[in-house]
Amino acid sequence: MSYYRKHFAIVELNEKGVLTARQAWKLASSLHAELAISVVVDYTPGWESGYAPFLTPRQMKAAIMKDVSKRLDAMFEEIGITGVEQIIIEGPVPRSILEIAGSWGADLLVVGSNASYGLNQGVSGISALRMHGFSMDLLTLNTANVEPGWRGRLVHALSGVF
Known about the structure:
162 residues; alpha/beta; Rossmann fold; 18% strand
């Protein structure tokens, strides 16, 4: 029986995020633990593009949240993930992540090594958890050496042309 019963994974909506989600799901499944997979949306009004029609900050935030939810659903479908809670976090990182993971009751926080949440720096990441009073452990998955998919290779190949 495992000590870790509730895993909370933070992913990004890219290929490395897919790898992180897949590994977190396999780990949770093998330990018969609950898993929540989360994406962070840190939306700051005023940084929208200048295309019409213009949206209010509230409408823009709602549109972003809806898009993120669809993309997370697509990620789950691509991997074949079922029975996992989907949580979209809105707010500044890493404090929002820690608050949501803590309120969800996570005992293991899973992040990819490429994540820029300020939690994946090994001992300093664990210190950040402890400093904010959270009693969860941090697992950083190695996603640094992941080969890009066809889209990434195409962008990389075309970037030299322009």
